[in-house]
Amino acid sequence: MSLNRSWTRTFAALTLAAPLLVLGPQATADSLSDVEFFGRWSDGAWEVGPRFSYAHAGLERVQSAVKAGDYALAKRRLLDYYRARPAASAGRFSHTAWPGVLELTPDHIWTLDSGEVYLKTLTVGPEESTVTADVTSSVTGGRTGFFLMSRYKDPAIARFDSGEKSSGKPTLRLTLADGSVKTLHPSHDTYIWAGHPGTEYGDKYVMQVSDQGTGPFSAATRKAYLQFDLAGLPKVTKAELSLTGSANAKKDVMLYGNGDTFTEDSRTWSNTVQYTYSWQGDPGGFDWKQPAGADKEYLVQLPRFFFAGPLAVAYQETGDEKHARALIDLMTDFVNDADAYDPDEGAGSYPNSLSVARRVQNWIAAYEILRKSPSLTPEANTEILKALNRSGVHLEESVQGAPNWKQTQKVALLHTAVYFPEFFRAPKWRANAVSSLEGQLHDSTYPDGGYWEATDGYARSYASQYVDIALFMREHGIEFSTTTKAKLRKLARFLMDQTFPNGYGPVYGDSEPKDVRSTLRRLGELLGDEELIHVGTSGASGQEPAHTSSLYPDTRVAVSRSGWAPEDSYLRLNADRGSHSHADEMGITAYAYGRPLLPDMGTFNYSSDPRAQWLRKSTEAHNTIEIDNRAQDSTAAGAITHMVANPAFDLIGAHTEASQGALHERSVLSLSSGLWVVSDRLRPADDAAHRYEQNWHFSSEASPSLRSGQKAATTAFGDGGNISVVPADPGKLSASLRDGSYAPAMYRVEDAEYASYVKTAAGRTTFDTLLLPSRGAADPSVAVERIPVGSTPTHQATALGLRLGERGDAVYYKSWTTRASRSFGSYTFDGKLLYARTGAASQSIVMVDGTSIELDGAILVTSPEPVKDLAVEVGADGTVRIDGSGLTASADPAQAIAIAAPDAAKVVLNGTPVPFHRDGRLIYAAAAR
């Protein structure tokens, strides 16, 4: 029998025995003295109940010391017990790597996750010299800016030449993929000074770096920033940064990669969101609070001990006690500084329940490594265990926040219960955690399976954490119920259906681009779902999903896709809302030919930085319509009203009242051949004129341009897919490319242009827009022409002539009202939607909710019964493909649908060859049921 299995069985036995113990009253989580932690024995009974179950094998010697009142001995014996205890499953660290953590964190220098990535420390002295650093990892990782900060708090001031000087300018030497070398000077460089928070120094010849005093900064603190423009350059294989400078004494300066963009003539201390702070040399160390000017994530990440993993793993791999000492000192410093009694929440709750849970998970994983370290003293061990016990009490009682908060709190509680079965309340924690996790999965998802928080990043991590906890539970003989597993499967399918064809998430809400495939694969393996495994392995195993497009009416999301391969097309339309959502209802995200062509613009950070606020809070930053320069109010009504799914096309309808002042209705025709037509109707609540701004956003590498005349916006990626955004009625719109922001990852932001189409109108009005992706360069001949529908206004029915370049020409018609026979151009149609394309290679017709299509008086399609959806494609080889809902094979002219196909040689109905009857130009092969 293995030691682990023996220990687990001992725990199982104690789970039953523990309730039989009779103890005195236990202390609350508010504070824990030695007496309250170990208990107090008096007159043959527990006067103060212990936090331990001393019946646990191995704790007898601890109990005897406690009963004798010798708490110092009890602490020594408790540490001996944990050092001798068999290895136990301790869960995983939230982070196993963190640039600079081994060198900097022990000196109390802290950086937010990926905001500024430490590269190396440079040294300058009284004599001017040039220092060079390899910055390849930063540049190839998308960080083309740099940040300089004092390594130690000392009186010395470093001065580096800026780009304003004629010689000694900062230089970035790039080796490109073709072997050539490119040398760049900064596009912007400056420094900021805490003692002069409103002053900008972008025109100075030198950049100053200094730090001294106590606390995270002082009036003497100065930091320098550089930014280089690599736009248009090919792939970089090597990058070296050279700086020329000096200091009035030997000075060590930290160099970081930075993904933030700035303008040197406006950057000041006051308007800079800072990610790195130093308490080096401060005898008080971290104060665990948020420094002035820091992103609010600072208070989130620091108390969660994201740095614990790298330090503990370094100790585990090297045996170097300096890593163990550093982490133990930080843990006990936190206990002393921040884990004290909180009048609102109680001890063990700083700064909030989610942070407690994340900290507990990191501490447990670290404790399993640190428990045998000679640096762990009996006193430090006891203080750490007290803190974990207090946190367990808090997590049992606390059910706070959004679903990801509640889930993580109970995951941490379960880890605590399983890892510390010696804690008296461990059995109750275990039962509480499992019950809560089952209930939370039901409470946090909609009936259709979608996740309650409107962000794919949180949905992904939420589902992934359920995999982790399910596997952890299985390891310890616990299983979720069948009902809970079914609910998890629905959530997994929701993630799968929203995933881009390349396996990345669509980045809606507070999120960033992340590969979802490993999460989908793990969910598929856990649940035995071959379709999840297929998508999670990019088709390497499993079974391709039987469906393509999907509608989540409760979550208010629709996704249209042509398939599951990386080159397939994809469009997402949302009216979703919830925690971490953006003001983006009716927002579209579009992908084709291997890349997002109309992306969500990301998050950047949670600070008050204007770019971050614009990305997260404005409607203008999304692919939808902003009304009267105001962000949407997502407490208003809205819905995805319908989705017609056909193998050849999807038709999605939705509306929202979140756009204040008007009802915004959006209809999207999505062809599986890779083409989208978007029709918007605005119905104001009054007769006043309103400003409507329809925006289409591109990534920072898109290099968009705006054509005169048609006012079409086109991207110019050097390879792969591009897109043309072509509006109808260009004469009634003002069009421009406007400056915006794009966050390709958290804590990175880049300048990006977007296409803005604006009109001011009273009463009902419309926008109609062709979105045409292309493999390679966009076709400049693509155009849209408005076709009158008699005297019918566009807010009742709209018709367009589409010139699609090599794809041929097409006509598009949509009725916003009930079915009625209307004529437009050469066509007469009585249904809700028509798309008809003619071309040299093939011809196609798409019809929704109609019975008759005529071209120049000749029948194209006619049916005895209304057809819900019909797609007809006539190939150059004479093959006629018919797809639709509620169709059955029939060659009887009295009941079948007549389709103009004079050269038909073969008919395939919903994927199956069927016989057909020919009558002149018409064929009969299918009937509407």
From TrEMBL:
Keywords, comma-separated and alphabetical: Lyase, Periplasm, Secreted, Signal
Domain of life of the native organism: Bacteria
InterPro entries in alphabetical order: CBM96, Chondroitin_lyas, Hepar_II_III_C, Hepar_II_III_N
Keyword Nucleotide-binding attached: no
GO MF terms, alphabetically ordered: lyase activity
Domain Carbohydrate-binding module family: 182-275
Cell compartments where the protein resides: Periplasm; Secreted
Any one Pfam family match given in the protein's UniProt record, by short name: CBM96
Residues annotated as signal peptide: 1-29
Domain Heparin-sulfate lyase N-terminal: 283-522
Span of domain Heparinase II/III-like C-terminal: 576-742
Gene Ontology CC annotation, any one: periplasmic space
Claim: DNA damage is one of the keywords in the record: no
Primary localisation category: periplasm
Protein name: Alginate lyase family protein
Organism: Nonomuraea diastatica
